[in-house]
Structure formats: structure tokens, C-alpha cells
Amino acid sequence: MIVGFHAVILGFALVIAGVGVIASPTEAESEAFNRGIRAARQKSWWHAQLFALQNMPWNRFMAFALLIERWPERPLGRKLVYFGILFLAIAAAVGYHFEVFTK
Questions:
Q1: Going residue by residue through the chain (103 aa), what tens digit of pLDDT does each one get?
Q2: Is the Cβ–Cβ distance between 79 and 14 less than 8 Å?
Q3: Where are the domains of the chain?
């Protein structure tokens, strides 16, 4: 049973880490955002806040589109997600064996 608990924890941790790797911005995107923020801060604090709000993804589905777009480019993130799903499947098999889902 303890193996199942550890598999669940490790599975979720790996899936979250993989999504984080895939969703992280590239260096070019980070540099472009930093240049824009620096230019806006030179004008005023309000300009910097407005620039940050303009570049925030407002649509919740934009995050999914970003993950789908970057999926082929990030092999480490894909591996982490795949191994996380594998550990979650192991946890499900252990839980099924100990009849956790029927109680």
C-alpha cells in the first residue's frame, strides 16, 4: 500500500514538473518581456504595471494552447509527463490490487 502512496506522490510531482518545463518561457521571450518592462519602468511605475497586464494571458484556454504549441519543442517536459503518467498508472494498479476503489 505504501508503494501506491509513493507512486501517486511521485506521479503528480513529475506531471506538474513536466507541465512547468513545457510552460516556461524561452530565453528570447523572457528577454523581450524584460526589455519591454525596462522601457516601461523608465516612463513610470504605472506604465510598467500596464505593460505587465497587457502581456498577461487573460484567456484560460491560452495556457492549453501554449502547452500544445510547445509540446514538440520540449523533450524533457514530455519525458517528465510520461513518467508521471506511468507512476500514476502504477498507483492505480496497486490501488486496484488492494481494492481501494471498491471500498
A1: 888 899 999 999 999 999 999 988 889 988 999 999 999 999 999 999 999 888 877 666 777 888 899 999 999 999 999 999 999 999 999 988 888 778 6
A2: no
A3: 2-11+29-97
